[in-house]
Amino acid sequence: MRAARAQLPASARILIVDDNSPDGTGEIADRLSAEDPSIAVLHRPRKEGLGPAYIAGFRRALEEGAGLVLEMDSDFSHDPASLPALLGAAEDADLAIGSRYVAGGGTSDWGLLRRAISRGGSAYARLVLGLQVRDLTGGFKCFRREVLEAIDLDSIESRGYAFQVEMTYRAIRQGFGVVEVPIVFRDRQVGSSKMGRAIVAEAIWRVPLLRLRERSRHRPPGPQPADR
Question: Strands 106-108, 184-186: parallel, antiparallel or unpaired by DSSP?
Fold first, then answer.
């Protein structure tokens, strides 16, 4: 947290969302918050997935008047040194994405299978949704307030990494500008990845469902009965 704090403007606030982690994350977060008034902790009673946790964090940030909302992992997979670049990109874009798959970006400490799943997931979502964004599954982003207000957060059902795809897709469908900022993603040194079969399966079936639902939502009304 101190590393992230050093890269942010003095007015910035940090919110740690803890879903009752069994590894003591909540207690560590509380201790950091007690030491630094710019750090707050949102404790949630149980794990409900990545998506609901992020949405809870977004809502708190909006309630407190944030103009820009950054999301990132707290295990240093996302390098705090990239925060200024994301904030700078958000000056000209509505959503800035820390991207592993544009020039200058990449991954570190990943095996071939993990790389294939990640790249394949982004390629699959890009093809199905008809988008140009290279890194659709990444979770290092900076949203302008207006983007989160325009997206109907109540209607988002994705819980795993499909949540990242859905948020970017919704932003683009709302007409917001998106830019990708190159980052290097480093694998966590402690703990294990949340990537599992259920999360992969959700992404496979939910991505085409996103497009079907978005098409039906924007389908023009049918012919109206003529006046008599």
Answer: parallel
Closest of 43, 38, 36, 2 to residue 20, by C-alpha: 43
DSSP 153: G
Distance CA 130, CA 198 (A): 24
Q: Summarize pLDDT for 37-72 with one digit per residue, the tens.
A: 999 999 998 888 889 999 999 999 999 999 999 999
Alpha-helix runs per DSSP H in the chain: 2-6, 25-35, 50-63, 83-89, 112-129, 145-150, 162-173, 197-217
- Strand-pairing partners, residue 70, are 142
DSSP 8-state symbol, 82: G
Q: How far apart are CA 68 and CA 37, in angstroms?
A: 19
For 46, residues 6+ apart whose C-beta sits below 8 A from its C-beta are: 19, 20
Q: Which amino acid is at 193?
A: S
Structure tokens belonging to residue 186: 């480093």
pTM above 0.70, yes or no: yes
